[in-house]
Amino acid sequence: MIKKEIIWRELLFQTRENKKNKFTQKEIAEKFNISLSTVFHSLKTLRKSKIVRVTGRFFVLENYRKLLYLWASERNLDKDIYYRGYSTKSTSSLEGVVLPEATFALYSGFKQAYKQAPADYDHLYFYLDPSFLDKAIERMDLREEKNKENVFILKPDDRFSEYSQPLLEQIFVDLWNAPEWYSKDFLKYLEEKILL
């Protein structure tokens, strides 16, 4: 993920989880160890679209929904997938052997959050540091077969582990970009749950 998406995710998470929608650019820059100009540029589109209101000392996220949809439309899920594998096992069997260092994403992340799924799914997505890839492939007995992939491993950004999981905003934007036909059922349910 690029830096502006990391900043946007933070604004969304804080607003939903902690009911905090007022921030300073300095606070964000220090938290993520990035320059003030990076924070300033990440807010440029948000100011123009009236998603945030900027004052002399702080800025306020005024439209959670609009920011969530903006991030979803700009998210590039494929770019973060670094491994595509195939298994003949069922998705629920695979979920049972995923490494503990992994974080479920998309459909499995939704199921973890809500203890149910609005539709059947046969693709497994999860975030995992690349240093654990070989261990994951061996444990799940994955192989590579073109055009049959049903297991997708995504690279987490440097700040990903700082959030309580499952991170609903991340699940939402990833589902928005998922190619599977049943993602719309998950999105519809999630929209009802998290949109403020």
**Radius of gyration from CA coordinates:** 18 Å
Could you report the average pLDDT, rounded to the nearest whole number? Answer: 95
Order of helices and strands: HEHHEEHHEHEHEHEHH
* Secondary structure category: alpha+beta
- Give the overall form: elongated
> What share of the residues lie within helices?
40-55%
How would you portray this structure in words?
It contains 10 helices and 7 strands. With 196 residues, it is α+β, with helices and mostly antiparallel strands. It has 2 domains: 3-74, Arc Repressor Mutant, subunit A; 77-194, no CATH class.
Spell out the key features of this protein.
single chain; 196 residues; alpha+beta; 2 domains; four-stranded mixed beta sheet; three-stranded antiparallel beta sheet; 10 helices; elongated
Architecture blueprint of SSEs:
Layout lengths: L2 H16 L3 E2 L1 H8 L3 H13 L3 E3 L4 E3 L2 H11 L2 H4 E5 L5 H7 L5 E2 L1 H9 L9 E4 L5 H8 L10 E4 L13 H9 L6 H12 L2
Parallel strand pairs: 6-7
Antiparallel strand pairs: 1-3, 2-3, 4-7, 5-6
Helix pairs in contact: 1-3, 1-4, 2-3, 4-9, 7-9, 9-10
Brief overview:
By secondary structure, the protein is α+β, with helices and mostly antiparallel strands. Helix content is 49%, strand content 12%.
